[in-house]
Amino acid sequence: MGIRTDYFAAPTDEVAATVLSTPGGPTEPDLRTDRPRFDAVALPSVDPFVMLGGLAGVLSGRPYGEVTAHPRHGALVGARGEEGPWVVSVAQTLVEDLASAGPARLAAAASDWAGTAARTATAASLAAALLPLAALAARAADAGHGLYCWTSLTD
Question: Does residue 129 form part of some domain?
Fold first, then answer.
């Protein structure tokens, strides 16, 4: 059993929670428009708790325990039962750090992040995840939205 994680932008927790009624999550296209309902990126290897905590620490220069203690780090916004899916928030400080980081900072962060991640994560694989996540964060910040993670168990 694995975990699927899709990160997406929404203006409020209440709007973010509506994705729980969207079959397939925020990256799935709306059947009427064939476009996703949310600005989203699928990052199956980046969980919103441990992996994002490591990233937040790398980008901010603060200890892991401090960034994961932020009240919005992985805070439950909504769930559709005990087996999910779930929607959790991403701390606004991380959104701002991602949105303001330039390409050189993101490349360095991916390398540093690999040092805090599971042994199977390489700097290249994390950079491949970090770039679309940072672009999503920049779009969210420009729109005044927050970031959220839709999480679901997979077979």
Answer: yes
